[in-house]
Design a protein that fits this description.
- The protein is built from six helices and 22 strands.
- It is mainly β.
- Among the domains are: 77 residues, no CATH class; 201 residues, no CATH class.
- A hairpin with a 2-residue loop joins strand 3 and strand 4.
- The longest helix has 13 residues.
- It is rod-shaped, with a radius of gyration of 72 Å.
Length: 556
């Protein structure tokens, strides 16, 4: 190119000013000069013949540059000149050059190879590129010729966990390009903790939740169990505690019950089993071991009880199944029991067999054992019956205070009145009319016999205000034997119309008509109806005499 420039300049000088015809007008074609900043060399322009105006004959427009002047069609003898080819670095873009900045700087926009600098050419373009690693990989340190940074939208392998090209926390990728996920060691979003491990036995679970009872993970050294549910019937109960007997929760398939106590008397044993009647323990409603309570067999004598229904024999007295010796024992041991028939054992397991008696549990504090009952109009002598008993003491139908078809005398008067270990402290005699107590006599029984207790000297109280003051002509069980007047309490004899008294149990013979009560059958149980003695004949004939349906003797 420089050879071409030199020839062009020499030719221009030889032609005397390169186009000035001396007439003061410039006739040379217009020229363009380009100066290469790096060499100071002026690049010649391309010269062409001016366009014809049509006023000059014999001229043609060729568009070709002239070498020395107008062609005459004749050879001048000089060889023609040719344009030299351009080269990379001459500051002129020639041929297939993309650029030519006339320098060898690698970091500007045009490479020394006259190729335009681009990202990926491996050459760092100053002021334009941060880097250039000649690849299109977006996961390394250079992305589109920019240094990889958090926020560029590309995940830098080995450096970033994520890159979502925003500064929003909580969207799965943190502002510092870390994956917002459990296990990254950073507490993010809804995480309660993040210890960067998958150990579910420490204080932060693999789900990044604070370890807590009920999360389904057993925290070492803190919880013995954790089944992640609120079911207290399985092996792990509320509070993450291993189910055991006594915790108050019934473990399904293991325990029959669990009342959280060691009380064997309730409905659940200390072994967390439902009570049975053969578990050899007192539990549930049982009153003693495997008995009583209404659900198990009745208890034998001597076993504990809560009611007589718990006992197979006897009564529940002072919380024990026992056969009482008397009605007084029953009253003391079971004060709420009513009057009625009960079985007693007078000698407490001695040679005498137990017997049934009637107990009066209401009158005068209760605890009275009936030892005899005479019924009006039923035959027999009151003295003989009393002294030669027992009579009908095995007949339970007689054990009441109503008139019966049989006379009743128990074995007590002849065998146990202050003898054979039995002490009599008080005696009562009752006259019943229509099953109602009409009259009574109460005696001191201490130290008495079955005969002498019935005396004025032993009388403590009665229905009569003039007893035992007297005077008295009879006060005894034997009474006036010759006239058949037994259990006789009388004031005076003044002939049959003037006989005065309080009580008579009459049988044959009958010297006075009053004692037959107008021919009524023996035995006849007559008493003074008021609170004082009565004239028998007047009372009988006036129909005011007291007639007892039954006359009974009770001891305590």
């Amino acid at each position: 190119m420089r050879n071409w420039l030199g020839g062009w300049m020499a030719g221009c000088i030889a032609l005397a000013g390169c186009g000035d015809d001396g007439a003061g007008e410039t006739t040379s074609p217009g020229t363009v000069s380009t100066t290469m900043m790096t060499t100071g060399v002026t690049v010649p322009p391309t010269t062409t013949t001016p366009t014809s105006t049509g006023d000059e004959p014999g001229t043609t427009t060729t568009g070709e540059p002239l070498t020395t002047g107008e062609s005459t069609g004749e050879s001048t003898g000089d060889p023609p000149t040719t344009e030299a080819p351009g080269v990379c670095g001459d500051s002129v873009v020639n041929g297939d050059e993309e650029c030519d900045d006339g320098n060898s700087v690698l970091t500007d926009a045009c490479l020394p190879t006259c190729v335009a600098a681009i990202c990926g050419d491996g050459v760092l373009q100053t002021g334009v590129e941060d880097c250039d690693d000649t690849n299109t990989e977006n996961t390394d340190a250079c992305v589109d010729c920019k240094d990889a940074v958090c926020g560029d939208g590309f995940v830098h392998a080995g450096v970033e966990g994520c890159d979502d090209a925003n500064n929003i926390a909580g969207d799965g990728c943190s502002v510092d390009c870390k994956s917002e996920s459990c296990g990254n060691g950073t507490i993010e979003g809804s995480e309660q903790c993040d210890d960067a491990n998958t150990d579910d036995t420490d204080d932060c679970t693999s789900l990044c939740n604070d370890a807590a009872c009920g999360d389904g993970f057993v925290q070492a050294g803190v919880e013995p169990c954790d089944d992640g549910n609120t079911d207290d019937t399985d092996a792990c109960i509320a509070g993450c505690i291993v189910a055991t007997c006594g915790d108050g929760f019934v473990q399904a398939g293991v325990e029959g019950c669990d009342d959280a106590n060691a009380d064997e008397s309730d409905e659940c044993t200390s072994a967390c089993k439902l009570p049975t009647c053969n578990d050899k323990a007192q539990n549930g409603p049982e009153t003693d071991v495997d008995c009583g309570g209404g659900t198990c067999p009745k208890c034998p004598l001597g076993d504990a009880c809560a009611a007589t229904t718990d006992c197979m024999a006897g009564l529940c007295l002072s919380d024990l199944c026992a056969v009482p010796k008397s009605c007084q024992d029953i009253k003391q041991g079971a004060p709420d029991l009513p009057s009625g028939a009960y079985t007693i054992d007078l000698d407490g397991g001695g040679p005498f067999t137990p017997l049934q008696v009637y107990c009066d549990q209401e009158t005068d504090g209760g605890g009275w054992t009936m030892v005899s009952k005479f019924s009006n109009g039923v035959g027999g002598d009151g003295n003989s019956l009393w002294n030669n008993g027992p009579f009908n003491d095995g007949d339970a139908s007689l054990l009441n205070t109503m008139k019966s078809a049989k006379q009743y005398v128990s074995r007590f008067p002849t065998s146990f009145w202050n003898q054979n270990g039995i002490s009599v402290t008080a005696v009562r005699m009752h006259a019943y009319t229509a099953d109602t107590l009409a009259k009574f006599w109460k005696y001191d029984g201490v130290g008495t016999t079955s005969i002498n207790w019935f005396a004025a000297a032993k009388l403590v109280a009665s229905s009569y205000s003039d007893l035992p003051a007297g005077p008295l002509n009879f006060y005894s069980i034997a009474g006036d034997a010759g006239n058949g007047r037994r259990w006789y309490i009388n004031n005076v004899y003044n002939g049959c119309p003037g006989d005065i008294g309080w009580l008579i149990v009459d049988s044959t013979a009958d010297p006075c008509t009053w004692e037959t009560n107008k021919g009524a059958p023996a035995m006849r149980l007559l008493y003074a109806p008021g609170t004082t003695k009565v004239t028998w004949d007047q009372a009988v004939n006036g129909n005011t005499v007291g007639i007892a349906d039954a006359l009974a003797v009770f001891i305590r």
